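Whiteboard transcription, Tuesday session. T.W. wrote the C-alpha cells on the left side:
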C-alpha cells in the first residue's frame, strides 16, 4: 500500500484528451479509469481488510447459510430486518409498518433499521437461509470497510502507510469491538472514517500543518458518506450527527477562504446530510409521539461501566483470555456486555506517546488529547463523578435521552487514540531514518510491528451457532394462514426465532423484537402466560388475533398445551410441530 495515493489512482490524468465532440461516453477511457480504481490505494486497503476479516470469520465464510456469529438473539433481528427490506422491494406495501408487532403501525421504527444496507438487500433472496447469507456477507464486509476507512483517514491526515495500517487495524478489531459481535449496527463504523477522510481530502486538511488543493467533489462525497453512516442506525449514528455538527461549524469558520466552489460544495453537502437525516428521523419521531417510548436514567446507571471497564477485554479476545485484561468478574454482571471498553494495549501505549512524540502539530495533538479525554469521561456514564457530563447531554441534546449505553462512546476514544498512534509511528519512522543508517525497507518492515501486535489483540474467539431451521408445520401455517397470528410461547428468545422464520413469506404476526415495544404487544405477551383462558382469548381478539399457534419445540409449549380448553370459545388443530387454536 505504499504506491500511488488514492487521488492519483482515481482521478483521470489531466493530459488525457477529452472525447471527440458528440461522444458523451468513451468506453476506453472509462475502462482505464475503472482499472486504476481497482488498484487504488483505498481499494487495496479494503482488499487487505477483507482478507483479514475472512480469515477471522472463516467458519461463516465456508458455511454462510448455516452458521451465525453472536448467538440466536440480535443477529436474528438483523437477518429479519435485511429480509424485510428485500420483501418490501419485491412486494411493496407500507415500508415502516412491517409484518411484526401487529396491529402497531410504524413498527419498523421501534428499533434500529440498518437502512444503510438497503442496497445490499436488493440482492437477497427469499427465506431464512438466503437472508442469513446476506447477513454473514455484511458481517464480514463491515470489518473490511472499517479497516479501509481508518487507513485512508490516517493517510490523509499525514501518516505513513505503516501508521495508517495500525489505525485501520485498531478501528476494525479493537478488543472492545469483539464484545459487540451480535450488534451489526455497532460494528458498522466504516462510514464514519470514510466520511471524515473524504471531508479532510476535500478541504486539503492534514494534521501536519500542510494544506492540499481543495477538491469540492470530495466535500460533497464526505457529507453523503456521513448521511449513509447515520442511515445504518442511531446507536452510533446520533453521536456522529453531533460530531458532524461540530465539523460543519469548524468548516464554516474557514471555508469562505477557499473560494466559491468550496462554499457551494459544503452547502450542497450539508443540505443533503440534513435532508436525509430528517427523513430518517421522521418515523422515529412519529412512534415516539404515538407510543411515548422513553429511556430512564436508571437504565443509564445500569449500563454505565466502572473505571476498571477501561482495561477489561471480553472473553472473545484470544490473546487476553484469562489475563489481567480479562477480569470480567470485577464488573457488575447486569449489563456487563456494555462495560468491556479495552481499546487494546498497543494503541493505548502509542496513543499516549503520540501526545509527546508525533508527526502531528502540537495543535493537532492537543485537540486529539482533549477529544480522547472528553469521550473517555462520556463513556463512563454515571460512574464518573455522578455522570454530570452525561447528564448534561441527556437533558439538553435532542435525542440523547435514548442513549442508555454510555460505554459505546469508547468508539470515539479508540478513533482518537488510533490517529495519535499513527502520528507516533510516522514520527518514529522519520527519527530512525534520520539518525541511523538502517535501510528504509528494513525500517518499513519494523514499523509494521505495531499494526501486527494490534492485530493479534483483535484475534477473535467467536463461537458460531447453527441456523435454526423452520419446522415444516410452522412453514405450512405461514403459507396457508393469511390473517394475523400470534405464536406462543411469546418470550424474548422464542420471538427472535419467530422473526427469523417469518422471513419465509413474512406472515403478519403479533410477535416481534426491537428496542421498544408497543402497549399492544405487552398486553398480548402478558395474557399469553395464561393462554388458553377467557381473559387471554379476549385480549387476543381485541387486537384482531383469531389464530394462535403454539410451537411444540419451544420451551414452555408443553405447559400451554396441558391447560384445559373445555368450554372455551376456540377450536384447535394439532400436527407434528404445532397446535393451531382458532378463537371464536
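and on the right, the sequence the group agreed on:
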Amino acid at each position: 500500500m505504499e504506491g500511488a495515493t488514492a487521488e492519483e489512482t482515481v482521478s483521470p490524468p489531466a493530459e488525457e484528451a477529452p472525447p471527440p465532440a458528440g461522444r458523451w461516453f468513451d468506453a476506453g477511457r472509462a475502462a482505464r479509469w475503472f482499472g486504476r480504481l481497482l488498484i487504488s490505494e483505498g481499494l487495496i486497503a479494503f482488499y487487505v481488510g477483507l482478507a483479514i476479516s475472512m480469515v477471522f470469520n472463516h467458519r461463516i465464510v465456508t458455511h454462510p447459510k448455516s452458521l451465525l456469529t453472536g448467538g440466536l438473539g440480535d443477529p436474528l433481528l438483523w437477518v429479519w430486518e435485511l429480509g424485510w427490506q428485500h420483501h418490501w422491494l419485491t412486494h411493496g406495501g407500507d415500508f415502516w409498518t412491517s409484518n411484526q408487532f401487529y396491529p402497531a403501525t410504524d413498527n419498523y421504527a421501534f428499533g434500529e433499521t440498518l437502512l444503510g444496507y438497503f442496497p445490499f438487500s436488493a440482492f437477497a433472496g427469499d427465506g431464512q437461509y438466503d437472508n442469513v447469507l446476506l447477513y454473514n456477507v455484511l458481517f464480514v464486509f463491515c470489518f473490511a470497510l472499517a479497516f479501509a476507512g481508518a487507513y485512508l483517514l490516517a493517510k490523509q491526515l499525514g501518516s505513513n502507510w505503516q501508521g495508517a495500517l495500525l489505525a485501520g487495524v485498531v478501528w476494525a478489531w479493537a478488543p472492545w469491538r469483539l464484545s459487540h459481535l451480535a450488534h451489526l449496527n455497532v460494528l458498522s463504523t466504516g462510514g464514519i472514517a470514510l466520511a471524515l477522510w473524504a471531508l479532510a481530502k476535500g478541504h486539503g486538511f492534514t494534521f501536519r500543518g500542510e494544506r492540499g488543493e481543495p477538491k469540492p467533489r470530495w466535500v460533497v462525497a464526505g457529507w453523503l458518506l456521513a448521511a449513509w453512516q447515520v442511515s445504518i442506525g442511531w446507536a452510533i449514528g446520533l453521536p456522529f450527527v453531533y460530531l458532524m455538527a461540530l465539523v460543519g461549524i469548524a468548516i464554516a469558520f474557514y471555508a469562505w477562504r477557499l473560494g466559491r466552489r468550496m462554499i457551494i460544495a459544503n452547502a450542497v453537502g450539508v443540505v443533503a446530510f440534513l435532508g436525509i437525516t430528517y427523513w430518517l428521523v421522521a418515523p422515529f419521531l412519529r412512534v415516539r409521539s404515538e407510543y411515548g417510548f422513553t429511556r430512564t436514567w436508571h437504565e443509564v446507571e445500569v449500563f454505565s461501566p466502572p473505571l476498571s471497564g477501561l482495561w477489561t477485554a471480553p472473553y472473545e479476545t484470544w490473546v487476553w483470555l484469562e489475563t489481567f485484561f480479562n477480569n470480567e468478574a470485577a464488573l457488575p454482571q447486569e449489563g456487563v456486555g456494555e462495560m468491556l471498553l479495552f481499546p487494546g494495549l498497543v494503541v493505548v501505549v502509542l496513543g499516549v506517546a503520540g501526545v509527546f512524540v508525533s508527526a502531528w502539530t502540537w495543535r493537532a495533538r492537543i485537540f486529539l488529547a482533549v477529544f480522547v479525554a472528553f469521550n473517555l469521561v462520556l463513556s463512563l456514564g454515571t460512574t464518573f463523578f455522578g455522570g454530570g457530563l452525561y447528564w448534561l447531554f441527556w437533558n439538553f441534546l435532542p435525542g440523547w435521552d435514548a442513549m442508555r449505553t454510555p460505554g459505546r462512546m469508547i468508539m470515539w476514544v479508540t478513533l482518537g487514540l488510533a490517529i495519535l498512534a499513527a502520528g507516533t509511528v510516522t514520527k518514529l519512522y522519520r527519527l530512525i531514518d534520520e539518525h541511523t543508517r538502517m535501510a528504509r525497507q528494513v525500517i518499513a518492515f519494523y514499523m509494521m510491528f505495531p499494526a501486527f501486535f494490534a492485530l493479534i489483540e483483535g484475534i477473535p474467539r467467536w463461537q458460531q451457532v447453527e441456523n435454526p431451521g423452520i419446522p415444516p408445520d410452522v412453514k405450512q401455517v405461514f403459507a396457508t394462514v393469511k390473517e394475523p397470528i400470534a405464536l406462543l410461547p411469546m418470550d424474548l428468545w422464542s420471538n427472535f426465532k419467530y422473526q427469523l422464520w417469518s422471513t419465509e413469506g413474512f406472515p403478519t404476526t403479533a410477535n416481534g423484537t426491537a428496542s421498544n415495544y408497543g402497549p399492544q404487544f405487552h398486553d398480548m405477551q402478558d395474557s399469553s402466560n395464561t393462554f388458553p383462558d377467557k381473559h387471554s382469548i379476549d385480549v387476543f381478539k381485541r387486537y384482531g388475533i383469531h389464530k394462535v399457534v403454539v410451537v411444540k419445540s419451544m420451551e414452555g409449549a408443553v405447559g400451554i398445551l396441558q391447560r384445559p380448553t373445555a368450554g372455551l370459545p376456540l377450536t384447535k388443530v394439532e400436527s407434528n410441530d404445532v397446535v393451531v387454536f382458532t378463537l371464536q
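Someone added at the bottom: Confidence is low (pLDDT under 50) at residues 1-16.
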